[in-house]
Design a protein that fits this description.
The protein has helices at 11-29, 32-40, 45-63, 91-100; strands spanning 2-10, 75-79, 85-89, 104-111, 115-123. The chain is an alpha+beta fold. It has one domain (2-123): 4'-phosphopantetheinyl transferase domain (Ribosomal Protein L22, Chain A, Alpha-Beta Complex). The protein has a three-stranded antiparallel β-sheet. A hairpin with a 5-residue loop joins strand 2 and strand 3. Helix 1 packs across helix 3 (45-63) and helix 2 packs antiparallel against helix 3. 34% of the residues are buried.
Length: 125
């Protein structure tokens, strides 16, 4: 089994959502460690959040028919000790992933001043 999802998002759109909805938006869509990382980035906060948003969207797209009801907050974008991005799943997202029969998640992130993008591959072990 292999599934692919990709997404691109405007950094400005995420910055506007944070400005308009503040902590309500942040708490609904991101995990505490994701929020803390973004806040440490200062002027890069919106780009950091946009890359994570794109990763969450890409993951949901890769889930396909199994994506129903998966909240973005259940998808946590992390980096390992080498800086390689990854995804940790919680709650409904974990259950949906298990339903796919896939065993691993591969993630690639990229962002620049105006856009962030992510590609997710779900693969059998």
């Amino acid at each position: 089994m292999i599934a692919l999802g990709c997404d691109i998002v405007s950094v400005r759109r995420i910055a506007a959502a944070v400005e308009r909805h503040g902590d309500r938006f942040m708490q609904r869509c991101f995990r505490p460690d994701e929020i803390a990382l973004a806040r440490r980035r200062g002027d890069g906060e919106a780009a950091t959040l946009a890359a994570r948003w794109a990763a969450k969207e890409a993951f949901v797209k890769a889930l396909g028919a199994f994506a129903h009801g998966v909240p973005y907050r259940d998808i946590e974008v992390v980096r390992d000790g080498d800086g390689t991005p990854g995804i940790i799943l919680h709650g409904t997202a974990s259950d949906a992933f298990a339903s796919t029969g896939a065993g691993s998640i591969l993630l690639s992130l990229s962002h620049e001043r105006e856009h962030a993008m992510a590609v997710v591959i779900l693969a059998s072990s």
